[in-house]
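Hello Y.,

Per our agreement to keep a running log of every chain we model this quarter, I'm adding this entry. I've kept the format consistent with earlier entries: sequence first, then predicted structure.
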Amino acid sequence: MDCLDALIMGIVQGLAEYLPISSSGHLEIFRELLGLKLSGEDSLQFDVVLHVATVLSTIVVLWREFMPLCKSFFTFNNDANCKYVYKILLSCVPVAIVGFCFKDFVEQFFGDGLLVVGICLIVTAALLAFAYFTRTRPLTLTGSCRPRDISWWDAFIIGCAQAVAVLPGLSRSGSTIATGILLGDKREQVAQFSFFMVIIPILGEALLDIKDIIGGEVGSEAIGWAPLLLGFLASFIVGCLACKWMLNLVKKGKLVWFAVYCVIVGTICIIFN
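Predicted structure for the entry above:
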């Protein structure tokens, strides 16, 4: 992988992490387009670096909301902010189970063609479309016509959606936001919760990856440090812009157009697999 490839991949990650079009799926697509031949382990290592960059962009963009949460949690204040953090931690339980118990199973879907990506993109499109048309009905799935705050149960269900979205092509943001909308939660709250809930799993995976690098179990020879750094910076800068854009799009309810995009790209992936 050279620096130009890393720059392109960083830009793709920065955009696709926040837009409901699957960052992992688009990274797989661009690997095929650029002819990048990486092992599943090297591919996942590079993805983690890019995801850490977008996690940091989330913290930067939502800094005013992020700092009160940290203050309440680390000072053990039993207020709304502290309970919000507990809900985020609860939402991370399903993806933690997947990470610890099924990591090897998930890794085999990365760097193995575009068939799985295409199918998962179409599933993402179906979920986005279903959430869009359902929210226009008088009643939500909870039986209430008025959007509500995210409950403990909602946090866990949204976390399950995040756990399933580890497959390339299944959009994490799309799955979690659509699930929250289907549950009857407020769209702006769901979007912010979706962006916050990915911070812990990604940083946890990054720490494990750093531990393996220090221990000599995983190297960076196949990618190189310069491409890793350039990809990180590109993903961070583009991620800051895309995060703000996505928050506005969710408030306006414009996600259905991404469903159309996912169907088109998913179909192309299946045809040209």
